[in-house]
Structures are given as C-alpha cells and as structure tokens.
C-alpha cells in the first residue's frame, strides 16, 4: 500500500469517528425541555401546521389549505384510536369455574368488534399480573410486574375468541 493510500484511509477513519461522535452528542442540553415534544410524530405535524398557518397569513392562501389538511390528519390520528377502542366489547371468562389443586386452567377472552374494519395492536395490561413477591429480593427488582397480553388483529364485524 502506498503512502498516499494510507493517508486517505487514516483520514477516512478519523472522519468517520468524528462524524459518529458529533452525530450522537447533545449540543444544547438546556433546550431539551423545550423541544422534547418533537420526538413524537404529532409534534412535527403541529409544527408543520403552525408553519403553514404563517405561510397562509403572510405569503399565500395555499398555506390555509395545507393547514386544514394537516389539522384533518391530526384529528384523524387522534380520533380514530378512540373510536376503535370504543367500538370494542370484551368479556373475560374462566373455562373452569372449579379447580382442584394441581389442575391447569385458562381464560377465554371474547372480543366483539362492531366496526367494518379490523382493529390492530390491542394490548391488555394488568389483569394477568402476578402478585409481587414478598420481601422484594434483589433478583426480582428488574422484572416488569404488569401482566400483558397483545392481540395483533381483531377482524372487522366479528366476534373473536382468544385463549389466555
């Protein structure tokens, strides 16, 4: 390898390290509390809506059209999950009402979806949680004590049974 190629490789390696270090550095930690909301997608939609309103006020009426479209997207993004969850009816029942010691059992979850389209990403939290261990030993301190069950998809206009 020639000296010129070694210098190019060394410079590229240094430049790569410099970019990696500066790309992950927090340059303005004092501003984090003011711009933290931009980490969520709705923050960018709100910022785009405010920008398009300013464009509508000062530059062109087309900004108002864009702002109305963005407000509709925000309303749909916030409202649809509320409508989807309100249209679901759930019933949790045990399969066996009486058990003897050592017998296994499970629960049946009946989910009724009254919408014509599927509801996806339904999470059931807390009901299946195990009771906390007495004494609070060190080995169980990192465990998540909330029981969770995730349903990937509940079909539209249906009654679906799930075994838990």
Give an overview in words.
This protein has 164 residues and is of the alpha+beta class. Among the domains are: 30-86; 88-95 and 106-127 and 146-164, no CATH class. It has 4 helices and 5 strands; from the N terminus they run H-H-H-H-E-E-E-E-E. It has helices at 3-23, 32-35, 41-58, 62-86; strands at 88-94, 107-113, 119-125, 148-154, 158-163. The strands form 2 sheets. Strands 1-2-5 form a 3-stranded antiparallel beta sheet. Strands 3-4 form a two-stranded antiparallel ribbon. Helix 3 (41-58) runs antiparallel to helix 4. The protein is flat and about 80 Å long. The mean pLDDT is 82.
Task: State the main characteristics.
164 residues, flat, 21% strand, two-stranded antiparallel sheet, alpha+beta, 4 helices
SSE blueprint and pairings:
Elements: H1 3-23, H2 32-35, H3 41-58, H4 62-86, E1 88-94, E2 107-113, E3 119-125, E4 148-154, E5 158-163
Helix pairs in contact: 3-4
